[in-house]
Amino acid sequence: MDIPLTHRWITNVASAVAEQADYLTQLDSAIGDADHGVNMNRGFTAVVAALDGYEATSVGDVLVRTGTTLVSKVGGASGPLYGTAFRAMGKALDAGSTVDSRQLAAALRAGLEGLQKLGAAVPGDKTIVDAYAPALDAFEKDVDGGGTLASATAAAAGAAEEGMRATTAMQARKGRASYLGPRSVGHQDPGATSTWLIFRSLAEATAATGAA
Tens of pLDDT along 4-37? Predict the structure, then answer.
């Protein structure tokens, strides 16, 4: 994974979030503040602007700048959580202009650990983690099995989607949705949905380059 591919990943995320902004807000209106789509769209639009013309020196540099922008531009809990995750990913990488699949796996794990430390969520709480954790597990399993970057990111996207859909049956134990108690059951978590879009965008960016 190199700097141009990392840029493409983030650009893909911004496009996906813009396309699905109304849907994300619809999901959030059922169990949250009805602003998730608007906030995420604002944040990733700002990220694209922050990266435009920016001469990154490493893959980690791109991810840190992405995270820093999200923290400053996204309202609610999403900004700090996603911003922390991307910053942690970037800081986990060295100064190289390319990273291999195992280095990316370590960075993704650092991102999960960062957002879990901040949000104190675990699998089953009906949050971002319910899509992120299985995506990471699938990525690592594929890499350990000798898979390519393309196959690992595709596996991660598939697992993130399964995790996202599984949140519908969960009762929220974290965030604003937790205030609803049993009434949160039957609604897909908007944060898990955004996380799926992030992993899907990574898979699409990787597939488009034919990265091994």
Answer: 999 999 999 999 999 999 999 999 898 888 888 9
165's CB contacts (< 8 A; 6+ apart) are 188
Domain assignments of the chain as residue spans, ordered by start: 3-209
Record the pTM. 0.95
Q: How many CB atoms lie within 10 A of CB 35?
A: 17
Token digits of residue 185: 């059951």
Gap between the Cα atoms of 43 and 17, Å rounded: 10
pLDDT digits (tens, 9 = 90+) for 118-155: 989 999 999 999 999 999 999 999 999 999 999 999 99
What is residue 212's predicted lDDT score, i.e. its pLDDT?
Answer: 54
Q: Give CA–CA dist 79/196, Å, rounded.
A: 16
Class assignment of domain 3-209? mainly alpha
Helix (H) or strand (E) holding 167: none
DSSP assignment string, 49-61: HHHTT---SSHHH
